[in-house]
């Protein structure tokens, strides 16, 4: 996809991106202890973003926005690169970085990445199907009290040519997530490539069962995921809100006319939904044809 430049990133004011300010004491030891205590009681901040090419996103200042977000965990999709750009490697606050590279098109296709300030207990990759795993679409990170999943769900394609493959991916994803949920709560951040409800896209009537992401099959698969014990965080917190999208095609004036789709989601285990502090769509950030989404959650 073609990208357009966006100027003057310094003007962007991200909701919830202010740096943490710890109380100061005369003794350095007291300052450090106060900082640790405050940090341990703060919610975990998570970003998810389909960057539509990580190198291109970095050229538009995407790495600066990630740093300014002060997110503890960052999920990136459609990275389309064989290695992290230097600007991402320079984000030293993220002690753990994992880039999953597609074996197709020399890494210039699909791909996902995880940036984490805390090193996970364990990281696994792949959804369990050789074809999908060659495309680098799934990272699973285990933390002490939850699993975090980075996912870039396969697209059904033009004229729905890959709809059967999409059904297989949805089936495997459901199996994975329900198995994890038996062990610990699960947090998913990614591009699910589906507009679940009619209010999740601008033109439902002209796209129903004609366009990838809005077929009955894909929507029903997402419903089955929710019925299995998961919650679409943003929609559950904003059940009647319309016109809230995360993707706008570059064709025409889709963004300025807000002709978009909500394809990017945080999905969590039902039992931790009440632990969510907030969930936002960061529409003002235009480094990609998708905008980031942000969530804060404090596991009680």
Identify the notable features of this structure and list them briefly:
Deoxyribonuclease I, Chain A; DNA repair; alpha+beta; single chain; disordered N terminus; six-stranded mixed β-sheet
Topology summary:
Layout: H1 28-41, E1 44-50, H2 54-59, H3 62-69, E2 73-77, H4 86-89, E3 96-100, E4 112-116, E5 122-125, H5 130-134, E6 138-143, E7 146-152, H6 163-181, E8 186-191, H7 204-207, H8 216-227, E9 230-232, H9 233-237, E10 264-269, E11 276-281, E12 293-297
Parallel strand pairs: 1-2, 7-8
Antiparallel strand pairs: 1-12, 2-4, 3-4, 5-6, 6-7, 8-10, 9-10, 11-12
GO cellular component, one term: nucleus
Protein name: exodeoxyribonuclease III
EC number: 3.1.11.2
Tally of domains: 1
Largest β-sheet summary: 6 strands, mixed
Structural class: alpha+beta
Based on the coordinates given, report the CATH architecture. Answer: 4-Layer Sandwich
The neighbouring-strand order within the major sheet is: 3-4-2-1-12-11
What's the gyration radius in Å? 19 Å
Helix content: 25-40%
Shape: globular
Distance between the termini: 42 Å
Low-confidence stretches: 1-32, 34-38
Share in β-strands:
15-25%
- The average pLDDT score comes to 90
Summarize the model shown.
The record marks 193 as: Transition state stabilizer. This protein is of the alpha+beta class and 300 residues long.
What this model shows, in words?
- The strands form 2 sheets. The protein has a 6-stranded mixed β-sheet with strand order 3-4-2-1-12-11. A 6-stranded mixed β-sheet has the order 5-6-7-8-10-9.
- Helix 6 (163-181) packs parallel to helix 8.
- A hairpin with a 2-residue loop joins strand 6 and strand 7.
- The chain has one domain (43-297): Endonuclease/exonuclease/phosphatase (Deoxyribonuclease I, Chain A).
- The protein has helices at 28-41, 54-59, 62-69, 86-89, 130-134, 163-181, 204-207, 216-227, 233-237; strands at residues 44-50, 73-77, 96-100, 112-116, 122-125, 138-143, 146-152, 186-191, 230-232, 264-269, 276-281, 293-297.
- The protein is built from 9 helices and 12 strands.
- With 300 residues, it is an alpha+beta fold.
